[in-house]
UniProtKB/TrEMBL annotation:
Organism whose genome encodes this protein: Piscinibacter gummiphilus
Protein name: N-acetyltransferase
Family: Belongs to the transferase hexapeptide repeat family.
SUPFAM superfamilies, per the entry: Trimeric LpxA-like enzymes
Transmembrane regions listed in the UniProt entry: 116-141
Keyword field contains Transmembrane: yes
Top-level taxon of origin: Bacteria
Length: 164
């Protein structure tokens, strides 16, 4: 384990984290009380805050921030430069039942540069477009176009932002 100010750019894993994955990129940080299962892949320069859970079939790109209290279930991909605010709720099964599992979990993809505000709910199997912004507390039930801003219950397109 290295310190967060280490010059060797190795990943920093807090001593109170349960990080079972070895696929963590240089410069990334995994903070206390976070569990990362062995199949998870985390890119370079990521910040996975405290009290998070990252399941096996999860891919996190480079320069991603995952704030406190997030659970990333099997089937979730966060592309490069994604921001996930505190306590966002992701789901990977549209029809969950106790002890009944689908053949494959729905895949959710958050495209490059998208941001998700605190407490948003993201239903399974959606694509959040590149550069999109999800407002805090939004309930997202359908795909979000690139560079758009959605908010509310249910999230709806407010406007299409200019590409940068």
């Amino acid at each position: 384990m290295s310190s967060p100010s280490s010059h060797d750019n190795a990943p920093f894993i807090h001593r109170l984290a349960d990080c079972q994955s070895t696929a963590i990129g240089p410069g990334s940080k995994v903070w206390q009380f976070t569990v990362v299962l062995p199949g998870a892949r985390i890119g370079a320069n990521c910040n996975i805050n405290s009290h998070c859970f990252v399941e096996n079939d999860v891919t996190i790109g480079d320069d991603v921030t995952v704030k406190c209290g997030n659970y990333l279930w099997d089937g979730i991909t966060l592309e490069d430069k994604v921001f996930v605010g505190p306590n966002v709720t992701f789901s990977n099964d549209r029809y969950p039942r106790s002890k009944q599992y689908p053949e494959a979990f729905d895949r959710t993809v958050v495209k490059k540069g998208a941001s998700i505000g605190a407490g948003a709910v993201i239903l399974p199997g959606l694509v959040i477009g590149a550069g999109a912004l999800i407002g805090a507390g939004a309930v997202v039930v359908k795909d979000v176009p690139p560079n758009s801003v959605v908010r509310g219950d249910y999230a709806r397109n407010v406007y299409l932002a200019k590409k940068s």
